[in-house]
Amino acid sequence: MTRTVRGAKVLITGAAGGLGRMFAERAVAEGAASVVLWDVDPAALSRAVGELGAISRGRTRVQSFVVDLGDLGAIAKTAQRVRRELGNPDVLINNAGIVRGNGYFWQTDNGDDTRPTIQVNALAPMYVAREFLPGMIANAFRPARIVNLASAAGTIGNPRMAVYAASKAALIAWSDSLRLELEQADHRNVTVTTVTPSYIATGMFAGARGPALAPVLAPEHVVDRVWAAMLAGRPLVELPGSVRLSRVLRALLPTRVFDRLVGDGFGVYRSMERFTGRR
């Protein structure tokens, strides 16, 4: 699987629109055997299946499942259906994510904002991966891939997105630990790629401003970079390169110096002031 997903079974969460839909299009274009779309929006899923089916012209089986990733029990039930109807996926792209609110932490509603954000962004990828990992590991002679879409917000604190940043920090820590566990257990047919992009122009972060050296990313660029890394089994994708720079500076500089130089000077800490999100 170093060059293509041709003949592979691909499962994508949050696949009805945005990056998830674009990943699905890429899989269909490369001749995947099946592309499984998970999303909470039944109408958008139906449109995606119809349009992707037209593109594939019968070469790829495109199937959708309506699933709320905030319902951890629904993940297990839907995974059972996938295994029964299509078999275990070879490629899992944990793409789904949500962001809630635009206030300081104490101004948000813990029940409406905190719980679903942690469940969808952090817990759901773990539960989804746990469902399919045994099958990926057992098929030792076939390369398998797991992609976890995290965020640069998980590498650096940022005002007005405390819960979102916490959820992505948890996802990053789990994702890289899973990578190391698979290597340590010599299950090297399964590779994990963690992705930490800055803001992407999909509408999810509408109103947010890209800090200095980190302009809002074009979705097509993100998909190209992530797809290439996934096929090659690379462990980490940081977009843009300034995400790595900020991570290095955070480790080297005293906290208050970093706050002034990067947080305030580069505008990172002001980037969410005009956030509106999807309407």
TrEMBL record:
Gene3D superfamilies: NAD(P)-binding Rossmann-like Domain. The keyword Signal does not apply. It holds the Pfam family adh_short. The keyword Oxidoreductase applies. InterPro entries: NAD(P)-bd_dom_sf, Sc_DH/Rdtase_CS, SDR_fam. Keywords: Oxidoreductase. Belongs to the short-chain dehydrogenases/reductases (SDR) family. PANTHER family: PKSB, RETINOL DEHYDROGENASE 10. This is SDR family NAD(P)-dependent oxidoreductase.
